[in-house]
Design goal:
Strand order of the largest sheet: 10-9-8-11-13-15-16-14-12
Number of domains: 2
CATH class of the largest domain: Alpha Beta
Number of strands: 16
Amino acid sequence: MARIGFLINPIAGMGGRVGLKGTDDVVGKAVELGAQPVAPLRALLALREIQRRLLEQSPPLALHWITCPNSMGAETLVAAGVKGFEVIGELRKVTTAADTKDAMRHFLELGVDLILFCGGDGTARDIASVADGRVPILGIPAGVKMYSGLFAVSPERAADVLLGFLKGELTVVEAEVLDLDEEKYRAGVWAVRLFHSALTPFEPTFTQVSKQIITEASDAQSRAEIACHVGEEIRANPQILFILGAGGTLQAVAEEIGIEKTLLGVDAVHGGRLVGKDLNERSLLALLEKHPHCRLILSPIGAQGFILGRGNLQLSPDALRRIGAANIMVVATPSKLARTPQLRVDTGDARFDAELAKPEFLPVVIGYRRRRLVKIVV
């Protein structure tokens, strides 16, 4: 019987909806802004799918779960209908990285076969620092930014990866553990560092690769062409609210139309004027209430392919449904697409994800009046 160490970082992802670009060191502020826990719900989705998939096997597979008390694991295992699991350690009133590292030491002492965790890059970094390559690690994505290569592409796909590992069908590979400096990120500076490498079960369809930084000489020209194309759209439709996602390509669009955009935030333009800067979910919903005709412009994360669900959680399912799948435009330079074979979405709303992916291919603006169809998956 395989022994699985299961851990949730209950505060992971809370800063996303409220536009804080992370939760490290700002949990109190996130709560003040109305943030709600994200990770327990994401973990529950994964566990329910794991339970269903285990029962489908003939004979059914059984696992021995070892987890942390209360919100760091036990409560979610109970909610998922898992019985007979083992609880280790004690928790502080407010969970910290120290709780994660203490749990990891218990898991290693008890000889677990795999660590399944729910959180973001910071959690991955804490776990990998203790694991030190001794046990495979698999992440259920729940953070604001997830650039490391340990994560399944969605909670449901984590079940596929775990099952493949248990059946001996997947190779265990060494993956990069990256983390973003959130203080610099909030100031508009994108600074990612490689902190560790860690073992993880790898399935190329369901496991995300670590983010790649893509820069080529041709990118400057391609971005200029994309900016010209999108700029024409914005100027030709002054009655429409245009919501601009994060990244350098959207920064080029902002420069084309003469507005000052936050590089790593979500901003809004109406009638050629900046009407929302570094929006969080609440301020975005207020703008959508005022301007029902809108379009959202996004650029994928290089190599991973995510257009929603990584780094832009303020674009919540509620906001996205008001915008509508038909009103989403994706832009990317050809060099980025060369390393990004498919687009992905992970909004937390499976129905909306399926709606967005239903056409199977999305037209991506790659230059001035030039588009390319790119496969989209969930």
